[in-house]
């Protein structure tokens, strides 16, 4: 009989070791950063499941005290407290360090394994003590508790394969040792229920190990996907930075010659160089118009790069809305006149102030007006007004053009995008204006948005905090 038991024990242990070796073999060699990520994930789960573990321990200790031994329940409870405090302190320390620091990994792993031996020892002490008190029997309570602990480990200790192997090796050894010990001390025949319990234990162990492999594979797959995403993100960031630097360089390099060209064209068209032939004058006007468009494009690109780099500067000061809006409208009326569009303003009281960078806020309002002009029909009117509240003011620009729907929102405020429709656009644009305007308004602590009019057209608005001009 001892020879048969020894052979069965070796086969059981061999099965367990083979399956765990398969799990270990599936883990590719990891760099310190990835290993630190695994350690961090493991300790995060340890902290998160603290109350769940304490609930399970409490139920098991109550059963032990009521049905078997108060002394065993008390001793196990003390060991549980020591083990959980140690695990919590180690987890808290590792989480506080963060995932980015990969030094002292061996020390962290050592602390984690000490904790594994401590709480596995508590479970082994509890189950073996109850099994010895029960004597040779089916041992439902201790074996079920071992099964629960092993399944809990399979589900929540798969981040670090050595931890998983230690737990399953310890639990598996006791899981088989209890029925084998019963068979040994009773010399039970093969037809005994004790043998059936042993075979059932082997089957359950196989199931637990399979679960462990499944959870481990899923976690490794998730780690691989996260690593791929991280590398893709780094490459995307590098490409974006290169693009940003390229656009900034090109924009700056174009600014100087364009300023010279634009100045020369403005001078020639002003008549300062004498009267020009009619055909030649028309060509210069076309060139001047295109130079202005190119200048706007470069300004938008430079603003965009400044915002992305966090280098946009603002000069906030009290701004009187009445004078401010009058000035912006006077600047934009010539452009509106080219399209036979009138700008109408409903005046606001002189004591209405906001805190803003006047140049940047003018850029926002001018961009809204420019878009309204481009999308309106000849002979129409654009209405500018201000709604004043006790704490906020709203500048509104209402047109009677084709109009925008909620579906156009992303196109309006995203970079390099436009509501591109031939019946809406009279002139081209960079697709940056509204994105830049949105960022400027947000830097002012405000909001910019639009809504469709009840009749025809769209109303854009900018909400800003009202300022007491006495402040």
Structure description:
The protein is of the alpha+beta class and 471 residues long. It has two domains: 2-236, no CATH class; 317-467, 2-Layer Sandwich (Heat Shock Protein 90), CATH 3.30.565. It contains 13 helices and seven strands. Strands 1, 2, 3, 4, 5, 6 and 7 form a seven-stranded mixed sheet that branches. Helix 1 packs antiparallel against helix 7 (161-186) and helix 7 (161-186) packs antiparallel against helix 8. Residues 19-29 have low confidence and may be disordered.
How would you summarize the topology of this molecule?
Layout: H1 2-25, H2 32-48, H3 50-67, H4 70-97, H5 105-134, H6 140-156, H7 161-186, H8 193-269, H9 278-308, E1 317-320, H10 321-338, E2 342-345, E3 353-356, H11 358-374, E4 381-388, E5 392-398, H12 409-413, H13 433-443, E6 447-452, E7 458-467
Parallel strand pairs: 2-4
Antiparallel strand pairs: 1-3, 3-7, 4-5, 5-7, 6-7
Keywords: Kinase, Membrane, Phosphoprotein, Transferase, Transmembrane, Transmembrane helix, Two-component regulatory system
Domain Histidine kinase: 249-468
Pfam families: HATPase_c, HisKA
Number of domains: 2
Unreliable parts: 19-29
The coarse silhouette is elongated
SS element count, helices = 13
| Average pLDDT | 81
Beta percentage is: 5-15%
Question: Structural class of the secondary elements?
Answer: alpha+beta
Key phrases:
single chain; 471 residues; alpha+beta; Heat Shock Protein 90; 2 domains; 7-stranded mixed beta sheet; 7 strands; 9% strand
